[in-house]
């Protein structure tokens, strides 16, 4: 079973966390600045210094991954936050997803 509830929950988390906040974008020197679709690739830093990707992983709204064998420089922090969420069964690691987020063809 693939959990289809995570997208709306992740969107809600992002809206609640980022709306009305000042943020800065920081490029990762180990990565390209754009993906193959032309989208900007950058860390979203909150005004209080927190990294949105770490906070999303900690909330169980995102998972860490390494694309093309090139881990981002903040991968250890993101991965540690994901492990915290897994242990606490938060977000995608709890009910009803239980970590099942694989894509399936439609």
Task: Write a compact overview of the structure shown.
The protein is mostly helical and 106 residues long. It contains three helices and two strands; from the N terminus they run H-E-E-H-H.
Description:
The chain is mainly alpha-helical and 106 residues long. The chain has a single domain, classed as OB fold (Dihydrolipoamide Acetyltransferase, E2P). Helices cover 32% and strands 8% of the residues. It has a two-stranded antiparallel sheet with strand order 1-2. Helix 2 runs parallel beside helix 3.
State the main characteristics.
106 residues; mainly alpha; OB fold (Dihydrolipoamide Acetyltransferase, E2P); two-stranded antiparallel ribbon; 3 helices; 2 strands; 32% helix; globular
Topology readout:
Elements: H1 6-18, E1 23-26, E2 43-46, H2 52-58, H3 75-88
Antiparallel strand pairs: 1-2
Helix pairs in contact: 2-3
């Amino acid at each position: 079973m693939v959990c289809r509830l995570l997208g709306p929950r992740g969107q809600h988390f992002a809206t609640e966390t980022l709306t009305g906040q000042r943020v800065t974008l920081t490029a990762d020197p180990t990565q390209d600045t754009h993906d193959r679709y032309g989208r900007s690739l950058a860390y979203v830093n909150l005004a209080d210094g927190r990294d949105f990707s770490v906070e999303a992983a900690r909330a169980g709204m995102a998972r860490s991954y390494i694309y093309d064998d090139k881990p981002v420089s903040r991968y250890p922090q993101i991965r540690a936050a994901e492990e915290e969420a897994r242990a606490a069964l938060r977000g995608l690691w709890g009910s009803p997803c239980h970590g099942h987020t694989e894509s399936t063809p439609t």
